[in-house]
Amino acid sequence: APSSESHQPRAAAASCSLSSKDTYDYIVVGSGPGGLPMADRLSEAGFKVLLLEKGPPSSGRWGGTMKPSWLSGTNLTRFDVPGLCNQIWADRNGIACTDYDQLAGCVLGGGAAINSGLYWKPHPDDWNMSFPAGWKAPDMQAAVDKVFTRLPGTMYPSMDGKLYLPQGYNTISGGLSAAGWKSIVANEQNDQRNKTFSHTTYYFSGGERGGPMATYLLTASQRKNFAFWTNAGVKRVVRTGGHITGVEVECGGSSSVINVTPNTGRVIISAGTFGSAKILWRSGIGSKDQLDVVKSSSDGSTMVSSDQWITLPVGNNLYDHVGTDLEISHPNVVNYDFYAAYTRPVQSDTQAYLNGRTGILAQAAPNFGPMFWDIITPSDGINRHLHWQARVEGSRSTSMTLTQYLGTGSVSRGRLTINSQLKTIVSKSPYLNDQGDVAAVVQGVQNLRDALSKVSGLQFIRPTSSQSSQAFVNSIPANPGSRNSNHWIGTVKMGTDDGRTGGTAVVDTDTKVYGTDNLFVVDASIFPGHITSNPTAAILIVAEHAAAKILALPQPGAAKN
Ligand SMILES: Cc1cc2nc3c(=O)[nH]c(=O)nc-3n(C[C@H](O)[C@H](O)[C@H](O)COP(=O)(O)OP(=O)(O)OC[C@H]3O[C@@H](n4cnc5c(N)ncnc54)[C@H](O)[C@@H]3O)c2cc1C
After folding, report:
1. Known active-site residue 385
2. Where does the record place the Glucose-methanol-choline oxidoreductase N-terminal domain (predicted)?
3. What is the pLDDT of residues 343-396, one digit of tens each?
4. How do residues 49-103 score in pLDDT, each as one tens digit?
5. Which of 16, 45, 446, 559 is least enclosed, having the fewest CB within 10 Å?
């Protein structure tokens, strides 16, 4: 049985105290998979750290309260129960960020409070193909080990070790196996992502979401030199030239500047692919056209003067996995209504969950698996990695949706911009604006159709049998409405080619913003290119690696606590 002790809050998030005159060695902005390991590692090193999160608490552990009635009287919220993760599609009020045109979590934990917990040790190509020197697979191994030691993940999230309603998994994996694809344990054989399939791995633990909020934040919160505030949004960094002196924080209808330790303090922005770009723009860091927009907005009077602007290509290099949904139906597939689990649940399922963290509600909605992989090399010679995820969902009760993500190797990019209401907009769609990318997606669809063609009783609903794979792929618009995977990266690209002088990079390989002394960005926004699979594990790894790099930088005279 789960230990209720494991779910007691250690130190609830505090509300902001804007009148405080305290200064901090590090201010970390944002509590997603990028921000939480940073806050933990920097406070572990003895520095005085303040973590600022714009959203409210999510998990019950940290004072979250949003929950269905069957969880009342428990210290669990909707965010803690894996089987309730689909609720984000039914009701995202007070959870999703309202200042982006795409979905992101503006709550404690960021995306790692609302996502499905899918959790993958990256393939070596994920680092080797797009990350700069110092961030290649051998360089990343120590950080990979740190993350998977703290958060090993599991293929069996129910505490009785059983997989519930596995018929969909069995149907698809049986077909792939018969077609010669190999079964692997994904996070033990992470270099084998070609014509292979696996059970789904989640970062869940103890039958609950867990994840970085239950590990990195927990240890950070036990330190006296660590503070964190929720409902505390950062408007901008305050700077003199390239030296950051503090951040302007908005909370409870007022705003104030919280300073870093004079001379030695640093600011780490981990506000996500949209949020980090936005803070940079509001701080006078970005391309002139976007800074002009901010200047003309309600920010105009407080914005740093234009002679202080740092010109960098913030918002370029935007990317997201290209999502292509196929749908099949098979008589063996058994559907489960995870939406009903919120308002009118099956009593035996809620009891199993509450009594022992067992059953279908300990698995993520909507019953994922198998996950499978394919590598395609189009005529341009660049390997493209395809990650496929099957889930029991679709237009029929016996349907499964098979989503293909195009990640590592993809060449297409889009652009993020900001409008005069200070809302971020995907103004250039990043999907399939390269012929090699299109060819890989088409070939991947064809490979899957071929592999499953001999499964008795399996019917393709999308594509239809008369549709060519090329015609099918062409029929799906290449825009976020049809292709969105919620795996946005890249707007604050890391690299050695300084964007102030015509290069493409916004941060250097220590994750420091070019042209600044003490401003760093650590989250999905710094990824130069995409990775094979869902990105949470890779973002945690990037944060671990960045923390080690930042701590290794000379920091003259920093006062340790
Ligand atoms: C619905 C959905 C499902 C997903 N499923 C999966 C999955 O199963 N597996 C997987 O690996 N990935 C999944 N992802 C993607 C994954 O969650 C994200 O890639 C990841 O959370 C990004 O991490 P991050 O730290 O870069 O940013 P975020 O997680 O977005 O965190 C940024 C944090 O910063 C805060 N913030 C923003 N602006 C400010 C500000 N101005 N001041 C203070 N705080 C601020 C935000 O509130 C947020 O908490 C999913 C994403 C979504 C939206």
Report:
1. no
2. 104-322
3. 999 999 999 999 999 999 999 999 999 999 999 999 999 999 999 999 999 999
4. 999 999 999 999 999 999 999 999 999 999 999 999 999 999 999 999 999 999 9
5. 559
294 is in an annotated binding site: no
Residue 534 CA to ligand 1 center (angstroms) comes to 12
The token pair that represents 549 in the structure block: 């790099």
Task: Report whether residue 260 contacts ligand 1, using a CB cutoff of 6 Å.
Answer: no
Minimal-distance CA residue to ligand 1 atom 27: 272
The answer to the question of whether 185 is labelled as a binding residue is: no
Q: Which domains does the chain have, with CATH numbers?
A: 27-552 (3.50.50.60)
Left, alpha or beta for 357 (phi > 0: left; psi -120 to 50: alpha)? left
**pLDDT tens digits, 205-224:** 999 999 999 999 999 999 99
User: DSSP alpha helices (H): ranges in 406-535?
Assistant: 435-452, 469-475, 480-483
Q: 279 CB less than 6 Å from ligand 1? A: yes
Cα separation, 298 vs 236, whole angstroms = 13
What stretch of H or E contains 50? strand 49-52
Q: What is the C-alpha to C-alpha distance for residues 48 and 35, in angstroms, rounded to an integer?
A: 15
